[in-house]
Amino acid sequence: MNSSGPEENPEGVKQAEVIVGIPSCSEAESIPFVTEQAAIGLSTYFSAYRGVLINCDYGPPDHTRISFFSVPTKVPRIYLSSPEGMPGKGNALRRLFQKALELGARAIVVVDADLKSLTPRWIKNLGEPLLRDYGFVSPVHVRPRFDGTITNHFAYPFLRALYGRRIRQPNGGDFGFSSEVARLCLASDLWDEHVSCWGIDIWMTTLAVQSPYRVAQAFLGGPKAHRIKDPRVAFDAMFEDVVYTTFRMLETFPETWSQVRWSKPVPIFGLGPSETETLPPSRADEEQFYRAYVEGFTRLLPRLREIVADGVLRQLAELARLPFPRFEFSPDLWATTVYDFAAGFHAGRIPRSELVRALIPLYLGRTCSFLKSTRGAQPHRVEDVLEQQCLVFEETKPYLLKRWSEIGSSQAG
Amino acid sequence: MPRIMIVDDEASIRMLYREEFEDDHYEVIEAVDGGGLLERVAAEKPDVIVLDIKMAAYDGLDLLQEIRQSHHDLPIIISSAYGAYKGDYKTLAADYYVVKSSDLTELKQKVRKALEGKVPAKAGTE
Question: Model pTM?
Fold first, then answer.
């Protein structure tokens, strides 16, 4: 795939050991702050290495490039622009992989250009493990319970159960990787339009946990703050890309994940004396999620009949009849539902994007139930609920294996 | 016979765990606190560690990080009288977290699970 586009390398950088990549999409306003913090991070913690900042811009032409170069710093900079017609963070990162290999980098850290909470320590925590023989570093941000719900209710429990590694925020936008992992990403033939957009983070994490390279996590404090976007615009597309990519990758590694039972923790770097979450009051509208579930279930019922098992459908239907105060979407039902969808995706009898989108209202139902059950709870109680959900995904995994093999048998027949 | 290392500064807890786990055919090693723990782990090669958090001279969560840095795949189960530490991100480095009780059913179940939960070498991220 030819993903080359315009490049500006005013200082003629030909080699670099540590790279901070900054993907951006119309971030002229916010990129100076990120550039400044990343430059301080490189010069403070990686002064013994040749470092470079690379802005991988995937937005329409604007002032992002000028803003990036306007920051006064001695750290050299390179600007890469995705070619026209190739939008998405994934495409921008693909250019970064190529450039990193060209420069002979050992450690590549990626931080989004819209971050407001970035500190130089992020660069340290994400980068240092890569110089200690780790291949991929995933972030751990402090996040309120109503934030990161795709992570909490789908990406984390699903990847943990499937691949046996507890990557707490596998869909975090900020991460680090080695040149070996960059090469692996470039060589992968699993690239599609979902990976090239929001699916890139989960795609990289999944490739990394399947690779022979060691995986770590970096504690970045928090909570993470970035430029506010309209969540209604971004959510559906993000959900589809993340879930589609995750399901699709199951088909590539069945011989590995089918052998994994339970899970193991992954080392975390950068933890201070005591890192405990503080929870601001929830702003989430639980009742709105409930209504989305009931409406979505009713609307999608014919499709759901083709995706989920009869027993699961009956339970989902019962839920849709419950009034809001009695609504309770259990982790067991959620895990079984997700596995039915994963199996349905594999079966391929329904257009895959349509199938993934049909999961959204059910996911909102589970989110509603989680928010209700953790209302006013202390952080350790919230984490406990999420941990229990993960254990349910692990315990229920044989159900997915059974469904998966049934599909394999019917396809073979 | 699986070897289980109990790290707890309370003698009564160590005694209780020893009796219970020996009855279940585990070989039990005791550590009274974190002193020289890394060296003992390297020398005695336990199959699983049960680790207290609040010890007089040591913080179990710091010990957890230290052990995890050098023993990536060694199962470690936190056994604490306090559930509130579950909110501390350091506990993510443990395999399981069990709140202490005189009924060891949950702890035993987690020990069994931790020993069972070997990730195939192919996943080999550690």
Answer: 0.90
